[in-house]
Amino acid sequence: MKSNIQALFSDSTNESTGVASVTDAKHGHAIMVDINGTEFPVAGHLSQVELLKTGDQVLTMRTATGIIIAGRLRTGDEAPAPRLQEQDGRLLIEATKSIRLQSGQHRIEVHADGRIELDGQQITGLATGRLRLQGSTIELN
Predict the structure, then answer these.
(1) Residue 43 buriedness (CB in 10 A; 0-12 / 13-18 / 19+)
(2) Which of 11, 42, 70, 129 has its CA 20 to 30 A from that of 121?
(3) Per the structure, how many domains does the chain have?
(4) Could you tell me if residue 4 is inside a domain?
C-alpha cells in the first residue's frame, strides 16, 4: 500500500510537534523560535498562549502555514496557572492564596484564609430586597 503522507518541511525531522526556544519576541509574541539548532519564523499563536519573552520554552506545532505556538512550558519552580472552569452556569476560579480583581488602583480580593477586601473610591450596594450585613462586629467609620 502506498502512503500519501508528504513532509511539510524539508529538514531531517519528521516531527509535527516539539519543544522550541523563543529567540525573538516583540510585544509578548514570539517572532522566531529555535528548534534543534535551526531558527524558524512563527506563523501564529493559539488564543490561550500567554505573553512570551526571549528564552521561553514553548510547545510548537508545524503546519502548512508554518510554526504555531501551542503553549509555554512552566519553569521548574513556577506554579500552575489558576484553574478556570464553568460549573452549573457559574465561573469557578481557583487559586491557592487569593483571587484579585483589579482595575487601576481599586480592587476586590478574596483570600484563602476567609478575608475579603474591597478597596474603591466608592462602594455601592443595591438590593430590591433586604441588604444584610452580618458579623461578630460591624464598624461604621
Answers:
(1) middle
(2) 129
(3) 2
(4) no
- Note whether 92 and 64 are same-domain residues: no
Residues 93 and 54 in one domain: no
The CATH number of the domain holding residue 58 is 2.40.50
Give the pLDDT of the chain (141 residues) as one tens digit per residue: 565 655 555 554 556 889 999 999 999 999 999 999 999 999 999 998 999 999 999 999 998 889 999 999 998 888 877 778 888 899 998 888 999 999 999 999 999 999 999 999 999 999 999 999 888 998 888
pTM of the model: 0.59
> Across the chain, how many H-helices and E-strands are there?
0, 10
